[in-house]
Amino acid sequence: MKKFELDLKNGMVISSALREDEVSALSGVHPRDIGNGYTWYWLPAIEINDVNVVFGFSFFEGLLRDINVSLSSPELYGGSWDYFSEKKEKLRAKHTEEWLAQIGYNVGTFPWGSVWAGYDGKGGFGHAVIRYNS
């Protein structure tokens, strides 16, 4: 499978070459410094092929390591913790995995890294993670 790459049509292309300064300069981005060398940047939902997608980018020492991907639909998954349910988050994980497959990225391990999708019980959310090898 080809290395994960996605053109967001907003001037940014998600790829292993994505730089931290490119992401941190985006309008509406929410940074979170973990305090251990990792910094996360969360983008507002972006519509891609009629689906709202949320991306989170994890950088370690300036290099992109992980991309968190989840679909956003308050009608299906709830819009806040007030509407949380494990069932809805497992559905979000399933739909996120299906969406990734539709754009050409199946779950699995590859020479360049991995694609995972599922429910994170500790964090309480369904999502996918694209991880690049270091």
Question: Could you explain how this protein is built, in words?
Answer:
The chain is α+β, with helices and mostly antiparallel strands. The protein has one domain. The protein has helices at residues 20-24, 74-77, 86-102, and strands at residues 6-7, 13-14, 30-33, 38-42, 46-48, 51-60, 63-71, 108-110, 113-120, 125-132. The strands form 2 sheets. Strands 3, 4, 5, 6, 7, 8, 9 and 10 form an 8-stranded antiparallel sheet that branches.
Jot down its keywords:
19% helix, two-stranded antiparallel sheet, alpha+beta, 134 residues
Proportion of residues in extended strands: 35-45%
Largest sheet: 8 strands, antiparallel
Q: Count of DSSP helices?
A: 3
Radius of gyration: 14 Å
Question: Which class of secondary structure composition applies to the elements?
Answer: alpha+beta
The average pLDDT score comes to 92
Described by the principal axes of the CA atoms, the overall outline is: globular
The helix fraction, in percent, is: 10-25%
Order of helices and strands: EEHEEEEEHHEEE
Would you spell out the secondary-structure blueprint of this structure?
Elements: E1 6-7, E2 13-14, H1 20-24, E3 30-33, E4 38-42, E5 46-48, E6 51-60, E7 63-71, H2 74-77, H3 86-102, E8 108-110, E9 113-120, E10 125-132
Antiparallel strand pairs: 1-2, 3-4, 4-6, 5-6, 6-7, 7-10, 8-9, 9-10
Compact description:
With 134 residues, this protein is of the alpha+beta class. It has one domain (6-132). The chain has helices at 20-24, 74-77, 86-102, and strands spanning 6-7, 13-14, 30-33, 38-42, 46-48, 51-60, 63-71, 108-110, 113-120, 125-132.
